[in-house]
Design goal:
Blueprint: E1 2-7, H1 12-24, E2 28-34, E3 54-58, H2 64-74, E4 78-81, H3 88-93, H4 95-117, E5 125-131, H5 155-174, E6 178-183, E7 185-187, H6 196-205, E8 210-213, E9 219-224, H7 225-238, E10 243-247, E11 252-254, H8 255-270, E12 281-284, H9 299-305, H10 313-326, H11 328-334, H12 338-347
Parallel strand pairs: 1-2, 1-4, 2-3, 4-5, 5-6, 6-10, 7-9, 8-12
Antiparallel strand pairs: 9-11
The chain binds nicotinamide-adenine-dinucleotide and thymidine-5'-diphosphate.
């Protein structure tokens, strides 16, 4: 019997990780700790909420004494840490919120794990889920490897880089058994519609403008979220302590090309004439400090752990679009209330 704390399990990626662990490891007790911020939603994990090996804990990782008490009471064997403020545009508006959750929150978890585990690290593991954005921006050529120097440009990526450094430092200084993964852009079901793909799907459905930042020639590598969850499972169980693994989709797209394909598929799905949705594309003011290109060399996790993406981008996009079209209640729920004022502020 293992007790595993997953943080941020009511969010986008966390919900897929929690679901996978609850369903695949009935012998583990899974605790999902989430503050249920605007990005957290219990609907994302409704299907597993009654499973006997699952417990939801509402709580904030920035609350030091709460985290310490939780660890004392539960004596976790492992932590998979996903809770974070995750949206670059919000980090530009409110950087301190990102320092609080992403840096201080991670510190609280590290301190609690260290306090509980120091003296006997056997069978313990602190898994920190990070992003490729810590490496900064690439030009037209090259890939991020695990040894690429950190060079974050946004308050979001700076806060994630900072937390990565602390995790590594706790490994070096106190011997904390950790693993870190740095993954590229995820997409898939339950993605909050502030990020490019779900935002644009929602806007196409509602015939709203599709706000492409700058000239649209920014490049991202896209990975289907369930393939990220598989990679996390693999690294949690088979990764080496004190190691970093890059995770990517081998799937680079310029924003404008991705949006064009998305519009074509949506035209078919919605019975619109070809080119109709693309007419919604609107070039808007660029994001400050916008990273030109992210691209991942995922050969380490591929050769050492045998991981590779299981779905093509075409398959993943199809699944994703179908999910949003079949779950418009979910979309309507998350876009009611505070979403409207966020949208107004960001895009007016
Ligand atoms: P998300 O914003 O969808 O979810 C974050 C979750 O964390 C939410 O459920 C939220 O309620 C919770 N949370 C936020 N602040 C909290 C706090 N103070 N205490 C407890 N819970 C809190 O994020 P996501 O896209 O699922 O990303 C999850 C992790 O993966 C993050 O660490 C992110 O940096 C990393 N990541 C994301 C991507 C991506 O493309 N989305 C890519 C690589 C890495
Ligand atoms: P996003 O989904 O916010 O992820 P990240 O910034 O973490 O990569 O954005 C993906 C790309 O899409 C990025 O280059 C910014 C761009 N973008 C737009 O052009 N318009 C938008 O409304 C959003 C949210 C993003």
């Amino acid at each position: 019997m293992k007790k595993i704390l997953i943080t941020g399990g009511a969010g986008f990626i966390g919900s897929h990780v929690v679901r996978r662990f609850v369903n695949n490891y009935p012998e583990y007790q899974i605790f999902n700790l989430d503050a249920l911020t605007y990005a957290g939603n219990l609907e994302n994990i409704k299907d597993i909420e009654k499973e006997p090996n699952y417990t939801f804990v509402k709580g904030d990782i920035t609350d030091e004494s709460f985290i310490e008490t939780l660890f004392q009471n539960q004596q976790f064997d492992g932590v998979i840490h996903l809770a974070a403020e995750s949206h670059v545009d919000r980090s530009i508006e409110d950087p301190l919120a990102f320092v609080k959750t992403n840096v201080i929150g991670t510190m609280n978890l590290l301190n609690a794990a260290k306090k509980q585990w120091l003296g006997n690290f056997d069978g313990k593991r602190f898994y920190h889920v990070s992003t490729d954005e810590v490496y900064g921006s690439l030009g037209a050529e090259g890939l991020f490897t695990e040894t690429t120097a950190y060079d974050p440009n946004s308050p979001y990526s700076a806060s994630k880089a900072s937390s990565d450094h602390f995790v590594r430092a706790y490994g070096e200084t106190y011997g904390l058994p950790y693993v870190i993964t740095n993954c590229s852009n995820n997409y898939g079901p339950y993605h909050f519609p502030e990020k490019l793909i779900p935002l644009f799907i929602n806007n196409i459905i509602n015939n709203k403008p599709l706000p492409v930042y700058g000239d649209g020639n920014y490049t991202r590598d896209w990975l289907f979220v369930k393939d990220h969850a598989v990679a996390i499972d693999l690294v949690f169980h088979d990764g080496k302590n004190h190691e970093t693994y890059n995770i990517g989709g081998f799937n680079e797209w310029k924003n404008i090309d991705l949006v064009t394909v998305l519009c074509q598929i949506m035209d078919q799905k919605l019975g619109r004439t070809t080119g109709e949705s693309a007419q919604l594309i609107t070039y808007v003011k660029d994001r400050p400090g916008h990273d030109l290109r992210y691209a991942i060399d995922a050969s380490k996790i591929n050769t050492q752990l045998g991981w590779k993406p299981s779905v093509t981008f075409e398959q993943g996009l199809e699944i994703t679009i179908d999910w949003y079209l079949n779950n418009q209640d979910w979309l309507n729920n998350v876009t009611s209330g505070a979403y409207a004022s966020y949208y107004e502020k960001q895009y007016s």
